[in-house]
Structure to design on (267 residues):
């Protein structure tokens, strides 16, 4: 959410605009987020370019993070330290959802001998919050905290289908639908139709749209009030499991597992 949106939210909730937005904190978080698998070690200039900050501001943010132990440096390059994981651990330890999901994912994975995961929607991406893996079905290693595009993943489509119409239109307006494979659905009108089908049938099937050779099925994870809290999926190698088997044998197990969570998710 951008600063103006946050300020509008503050004004709406209190009846007057509050001066609560801490720009220094927002800048520091943007510096942390610019590090990824393609940008493991960065110079000050590179951080400034990736974040849109001035070089002086990027330098102050990096030196502050270094002083706190979240960033290391050799004097020229900067990189994140393992201490940064404590920020993600704070989320995982403060919400019961990943803890409740993990044993269910492990049970599904053991029963089907396939990898099973759960995620939530964060902006334009899904974020993995729990996972039980039996084998690698995607070229990129996945784990808790991994992020993937929502529009071309089965869990992403389940989560997008649960959005209010206004939120979905906002997502489509700001998200480039890039073709990751020749099968990727990139037309917004067709994606809307697919999301409506997902909403009606209560599950999503994606066939090699994220990566060639990967198929997956996903279902929503709902609480007792019917609110979608997360999505869970099973991913398979297309060479081993046909679409018919995925839908006929694996999907029912996944749906039953999601249903078993409903009484536990009174949040």
């Amino acid at each position: 959410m951008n600063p103006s949106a946050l300020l509008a939210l503050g004004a709406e909730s209190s009846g007057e605009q509050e001066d609560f937005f801490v720009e220094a904190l927002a800048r520091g978080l943007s510096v942390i987020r610019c590090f990824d698998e393609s940008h493991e070690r960065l110079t000050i200039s590179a951080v400034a370019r990736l974040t849109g900050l001035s070089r002086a501001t990027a330098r102050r943010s990096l030196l502050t993070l270094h002083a706190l132990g979240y960033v290391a440096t050799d004097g020229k390059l900067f990189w994140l330290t393992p201490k940064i994981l404590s920020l993600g651990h704070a989320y995982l330890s403060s919400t019961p959802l990943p803890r409740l999901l993990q044993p269910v994912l492990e049970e599904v994975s053991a029963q089907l001998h396939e990898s099973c995961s759960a995620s939530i929607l964060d902006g334009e991406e899904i974020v993995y919050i729990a996972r039980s893996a039996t084998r690698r079905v995607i070229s990129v290693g996945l784990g808790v905290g991994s992020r993937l595009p929502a529009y071309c993943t089965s869990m992403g489509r389940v989560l997008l289908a649960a959005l209010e119409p206004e939120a979905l239109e906002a997502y489509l307006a700001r998200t480039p639908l890039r073709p990751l494979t020749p099968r990727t659905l990139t037309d917004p009108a067709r994606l809307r139709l697919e999301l409506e089908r997902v909403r009606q049938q209560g599950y999503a099937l994606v066939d090699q749209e994220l990566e060639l050779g990967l198929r997956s099925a996903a279902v929503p994870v709902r609480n007792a009030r019917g609110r979608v809290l997360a999505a869970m999926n099973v991913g398979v190698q297309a060479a081993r499991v046909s679409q018919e088997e995925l839908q006929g044998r694996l999907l029912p197990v996944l749906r039953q597992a999601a249903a078993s969570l409903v009484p536990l998710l009174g949040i």
In short: The longest strand covers residues 228-237. The chain has a mean pLDDT of 88. Residues 243-261 form the longest helix (19 residues).
